[in-house]
Specification:
Number of strands: 6
Strand order of the largest sheet: 1-6-5-4-3-2
Shape: globular
Largest sheet: 6 strands, mixed
Number of domains: 2
Radius of gyration: 23 Å
CATH topology of the largest domain: Nuclear Transport Factor 2, Chain: A
CATH class of the largest domain: Alpha Beta
Distance between the termini: 63 Å
CATH superfamily of the largest domain: Microbial ribonucleases
Helix content: 25-40%
């Protein structure tokens, strides 16, 4: 087998760079759901306050001011039974309704907060959460 200088260069220079790039890509990939804690706030999934619906920004302002809240259930303990948020002691999380235009009931949108300022937004009635980043 006759290796030309081009083949030797490729094997000694390019192949190690390719292997290193592949290893770094694997290390940077998000962890699988099984290797994370047992909550389902998506890996590195945040939502900036700016991108919340206007009604959610209004609810967040009410939370910061301590109310008054428009719904009787606002501020009740959120038990996190499905473990979709990080585990905390009972009473840590409180839930607040985010008004949904055109819906007469409380709708599906909520903000769930724990002290001091750890708030999550859901628009699908607790199926998924995104941590609010201000």
């Amino acid at each position: 087998m006759n290796l030309s200088w081009i083949n030797i260069f490729w094997v000694t220079r390019t192949l190690p760079i390719f292997a290193l790039t592949a290893c770094l890509a694997l290390l940077a990939a998000p962890a699988s759901a099984d290797s994370r804690d047992d909550y389902n706030v998506e890996y590195n999934q945040y939502i900036a306050t700016l991108f919340l619906p206007p009604e959610a920004r209004e609810t967040l302002g009410l939370i910061k001011r301590g109310g008054p809240f428009p719904y009787a259930r606002d501020g009740v303990v959120f038990s996190n039974f499905e473990k979709r948020l990080p585990r905390q002691k009972r009473g840590y999380y409180r839930e607040y309704t985010v008004k949904t235009p055109g819906v007469r009931s409380r709708g599906a949108r909520r903000i769930v907060c724990g002290p001091p300022v750890e708030c999550y937004y859901t628009d699908d009635h607790y199926e998924t959460f995104r941590r609010i980043r201000e």
